[in-house]
Design a protein that fits this description.
Shape: elongated
Low-confidence stretches: 294-309, 321-342
Strand order of the largest sheet: 1-2
Oligomer: single chain
Helix content: 40-55%
Number of helices: 24
Number of domains: 3
Structural class: mainly alpha
Mean pLDDT: 85
């Protein structure tokens, strides 16, 4: 029985299920579940690069350090036993049994690409910009689950139940009760759809599809988190051992990472401990042992040792050559609420200053998924290239619920601060402004109280001032700038179309 293979697959299934469960259960209310940022606390890539770009040590870095220490002991086990994106790739790879198998020489040529990418990300971080989220596997998987998988599954099931219930008029009975129960649990509170979700889906699909043709191509050549683990695992205590080898080369041909050069030598940093080679060996003489000196560790094995990625000397030289960038920042820390490109966007409540926000935000989608009005949407270029897929409030879609703190509680990095409800209610997302040229009350003298009625502030930030329009005395909306918090409900409910007669201006948002 292939016990280690079964154990690995069980581990992969468990952590993939746990990952999806944490994201799925991150909804209203935030009770009885693991914290939304649990997995990201164990991501050393994000911890390191956020800390470098912001010159801080972010909360939870100890968990990431623990992952690095465990890698020093066990090797690159995270990639083969835990990584949810790696598991998704393995599931897709199972669709094609005749994948292209790269030779170890070909693998050496492509595996260093991920170290180059990691170096580029490091330069950006030293310059004060965290962009490693683009290729971080946990972020990519989380974004897909939150903004594609969950809406697709819940939307499909919800549509099915509604169709059956309406078709057969089953408004009472067991099926309707089951649907009502699912609506408050598995299906969540609302079924949401997000801007640019197709791009997110295509990006994720491209990664998984690559594994159908070349096993773990992403892990070999691109993954920056894999590069971090590869750099450390080359010194790990757990080592592959082969005794009485017949040189059949079966393990070399079947290695999913092309990490085995020959039956007795392997590229340690590329081994993800899938354990296939143990059971593929006809003589069953392959094993993994602690502190075992690999065969051929002398001159014959030097070629492998020199292809483990960038050497310590090269890495140190790279670091020294990059230090001149450490004092450089493109914008002051206390940047305004305007995006880097100068275009106005409304950030979630209690967001950090824009430059800091762009570094802290990992684009995981947690805040957008938990927003109970669906108002938080991923932006594309509205805030510049640096702001791609960061959250912004779109009042036409949904407003910021006055009695809600979910986005701050769900944020794993502190890009959106977690505040008590009373403090959050005082945070300004901006200030609403009335366009008198299209407002029904100001322009046409019609009685319209929509914005004033929906204003959630206790003393009403929108007040109706009586005035004469075309010979009629009507109430006209005026915004109290001191009371307005810019929640956007007035803009959301305004009946004027296509352009709303009242809009939130984020220029005066509280971003400190």
């Amino acid at each position: 029985m292939r016990k280690l293979i079964v154990l690995r697959r069980t581990s992969q299934a468990f952590f993939l299920g746990l990952f999806i469960y944490i994201l799925w259960s991150t909804t209203y209310p935030l009770k009885g579940m693991l914290p939304p940022g649990t997995f990201f606390k164990f991501d050393p890539l994000m911890s390191i690069f956020i800390s470098i770009s912001e010159r801080i040590i972010i909360a939870g870095s100890g968990f990431a350090a623990a992952m690095l220490l465990s890698t020093l002991v066990l090797g690159r086990y995270f990639c083969g036993w835990i990584c949810p994106l790696g598991t998704a790739m393995d599931l897709c790879a199972a669709l094609n049994k005749k994948k292209l198998m790269l030779s170890w020489k070909a693998n050496i040529r492509i595996k260093n690409i991920k170290f180059v990418l990691l170096s580029v990300f490091l330069i950006f971080a030293l310059a004060g910009s965290q962009v490693v989220w683009v290729l971080d596997p946990l972020v990519i998987m989380a974004r897909f689950v939150s903004l594609n998988l969950i809406p697709a599954v819940t939307g499909t099931i919800n549509t099915f139940f509604i169709f059956i219930i309406q078709k057969f008029q089953l408004y009472n009975g067991g099926l309707y009760d089951l649907y009502s129960g699912l609506r408050t649990s598995f299906l969540g509170v609302n079924i949401y759809y997000f801007d640019h979700s197709l791009l997110i889906f295509l990006f994720f699909t491209a990664i998984c599809t690559s594994a159908v043709f070349v096993s773990r191509l992403w892990c070999r050549a691109v993954c920056p988190l894999g590069a971090v683990y590869a750099f450390i695992s080359r010194y790990s205590f757990l080592t592959r051992s082969v005794e009485d080898c017949s040189d059949c080369a079966v393990c070399t041909e079947r290695c999913r990472m092309s990490a085995i050069k020959d039956s007795t030598g392997y590229i340690k940093s590329e081994c993800i401990l899938c354990m296939d080679c143990i059971y593929d060996c006809p003589r069953k003489t392959t094993s993994f042992r602690f502190f075992n000196r690999p065969p051929g560790s002398g001159p014959a094995n030097r070629e492998i040792a020199e292809t483990h990625g960038i050497s310590r000397k090269e890495f140190i030289i790279f670091l020294i050559s990059s230090f001149f960038l450490t004092g450089y920042r493109k914008s002051p820390r206390g940047a305004s609420a305007r995006g880097v490109s100068g275009k106005k966007i409304i950030r979630p409540p209690a967001s950090s200053p824009e430059k800091e926000f762009l570094n802290l935000c990992i684009r995981c989608g947690n805040c957008m998924k938990v927003c109970i009005t669906n108002g938080l949407q991923p932006v594309l270029l509205q805030s510049g290239l640096e702001g791609i897929w960061t959250p912004a409030l779109v009042p036409e879609i949904g407003y910021c619920e006055y009695n809600c703190t979910l986005c701050g509680n769900a944020c794993p990095t502190g890009a959106i601060k977690s505040l008590p409800l009373r403090e959050k209610q005082k945070i300004k997302l901006g200030i609403a402004k009335v366009d008198k040229d299209i407002c029904l009350a100001w322009k046409y003298g019609l009685e319209c109280l929509v914005c004033e009625e929906h204003c959630p502030v206790h003393d009403k930030a929108i007040k109706m001032v009586r005035g004469e329009v075309d010979g009629k005395v009507v109430g006209r909306p005026v915004v109290d700038r001191d009371l307005c918090v810019g929640c956007g409900i007035c803009q959301n409910k305004c009946p004027v179309r296509p352009v709303r007669a009242i809009k939130v201006d984020p220029e005066f948002a509280d971003r400190g």
